[in-house]
Amino acid sequence: MKSSEQLNSPDYDPNQLLGALIEKLHLKNDAALSRALEVAPPVISKIRHRRLPVGASLLIRMHEVCDLSIADLRELMGDRRGKFRISDKQFKPKAVHTASHAVTSHGASHPA
Length: 112
What we know:
The chain is mainly alpha-helical. The chain is built from 6 helices and 2 strands; from the N terminus they run H-H-H-H-H-H-E-E.
């Protein structure tokens, strides 16, 4: 399921996740949650309004702050996928371009 498909899924409910975090951390509102997670307040707003999915880095940050497992956090937001897959493209190394100049130990560039 792609991010856009997940955002429109009837099972996906980021509000339940955000509400559970606010309750668990004894916070008053989304602004306090954004401070606890060290993200800008618009990030929480965009997630709440389904304009932004909960990304892997934010999910990890939520885990670090509230001590809930990643599986529990995914369950709270309605992510029922068996595995969280990352595309093969993200693991392929970028093409390395060879330089036409060699750099000496002093940082000077000389034609190779």
